[in-house]
Amino acid sequence: MQPGTRRRLTAIIGAAAAALSAGAVTLVASQGANAAPGCEVDLNVVSSWGSGFQANVSITSAEAVGDWTVEWDFTSAVSGISAWNVTGQTLSGAHFTAADAGWNASIAAGQTREVFGFTASGTPGDIANAEVNGIACGDGDGEQTTEPEPTEPTPTDPEPTDPAPEGTPVQEHGKLSVCGTKMCDASGDPVQLKGVSSMWLHWQTQPYAQNLQALEWMRDNWNIDVFRVAMGVEPEGAYLDDPARWKSEVETVIDNAATAGVYVIVDFHAHAAHQHQSEAVAFFSDLADRYGHLPNIIWETYNEPEQVSWSSQVKPYHQATVAAIRQHDPDNLIVLGTPTWSQDVDVAAADPVAGTNLMYTLHFYSCTHSQWNRDKANTAISRGLALFVTEWGASHADGGLDGRLCLDEAQRWVDWMEANGISWAAWKLDVGTDSTNLLSAGAPLTGGWNNHLRGHGPFVVENLR
User: Are 241 and 274 in contact (CB under 8 A)?
Assistant: First the structure.
């Protein structure tokens, strides 16, 4: 997001709060329920962009807290609030309420813990009538204190990272960035990554995506630069049903990619992710905290939004997930899904998400999508968007259930991506009868697939090489 003036909103409540620093919203709660005396709530406005702002909320407690509910009244006009890492959030008029999400419920005695964040439309002002766990936080007038703070976070030492193996894509290109409408490498030179995507992890016939030998074989024999791990979210048996399992499987792919020196796209593979924003924010916040120091990570926050509003549904979701990632990973690429199954990049270009190193998802299937869709993409590029085709196939948009291939149109797409320097990952590394399944029956888990290519597989591999 565009950096704005960072401010802290300070409510000074009662005499007990007067001695506290002016940079906090201070709530002094009576003892009872789970509220502890001497607690503080700090609203740190980390950015603002004219029509809205983003803030993080921290709680300090003098005594241990087992769970919490915070509420207050905004004194300025605020609407459209979207918080993450909370449950039960409501904004009724000026009155805001939010409770812990379980994993962030406990606050040790004397601990300051950042517990959630939010974006909102409007302008940040003061807060009043604050309560913690239903206990009024004292009488007295709130007043706002604005103090300048640096727009950049305090630098910290990065976690140690083993260098990528000699001759691998990551060793050659290093950390990636967006330069204009292109992707550039660590030297500032334009780069086009090419690779393949996994199947939805929970629907794979074998764990091809999680096998290190297979990844290294594709790097050495197909010349892939990037591998996309498509973590299914909504279907039965996917992430929402078993988050610990599937996040662990994604971690395996990330670790393998770091070992192999290959870029990895971490894909929240959903069609209604905006309905699961809190889960997405928690997922990306955790992984970005632990893996954001790696130079080969690319985050893809929303695979294919369906026919939903960009400005009122998809964009606010992206703002929340981008903010969660940027708290821990300030500069790796983030790819943002676009409406109508990631076709409407021109719509996103008319109202882009503020921030740096952001790219936008474009998907095509050549029997369904042709020049009309490239025209939409050309419009987006002309308006300054950087695109990434994180999924494509030489088939119908259903992945090729009828087995048909449209290779001439697929070649037009490949030539167009080459001409525009647009990186891509072809769908999908698995065995099956769909024309986008790259492998035939009997393909071993560990690679060695030159005699097991099928469907659009030979075409994909030819264009990888």
Answer: no
| Span 407-434, pLDDT tens digits | 999 999 999 999 999 999 999 999 999 9
Query: Kindly report the CA angle at 208 between 205 and 214, in degrees rounded to 5?
Result: 150
Structure tokens at 454: 């099928």
d(CA 239, CA 362): 23
**Residue keyed to tokens 């099928």:** 454
Our CA angle for 195, 287, 305, nearest 5°, is 60
Measured in degrees and rounded to the nearest 5, phi and psi for residue 225 equal -100, -25
Per-residue pLDDT tens digits for 194-226:
999 999 999 999 999 999 999 999 999 999 999
pTM of the model: 0.68
Q: How far apart are CA 303 and CA 383, in angstroms?
A: 22
- Who's near 157: CB < 8 A, 6+ residues apart? none
Does an H or E element contain 95, and which? Answer: strand 95-100
Q: Identify the structural domains of the chain with CATH numbers, from first to last.
A: 7-136 (2.60.40.290), 169-464 (3.20.20.80)
Alpha-carbon separation of residue 173 from 4, 49, 253, 451 (angstroms): 32, 33, 20, 31
Residue pLDDT, tens place only, 166-197: 889 999 999 999 999 999 999 999 999 999 99
What is the signed CA dihedral for 232, 218, 163, 229, rounded to 10 degrees?
0
The catalytic residue positions are: 304, 391
Dump strand ranges (E) for 18-68: 40-48, 52-60
Gap between the Cα atoms of 271 and 277, Å rounded: 12
Contact 288, 334 (CB under 8 A): no
Task: Kindly report each contact of residues 12-21 with a partner whose C-beta sits within 8 Å and lies 24 or more positions away, as own/partner.
Answer: 12/140, 12/141, 12/142, 12/143, 13/130, 13/137, 13/138, 13/139, 13/140, 13/142, 14/138, 14/139, 14/140, 15/140, 16/138, 17/138, 17/140
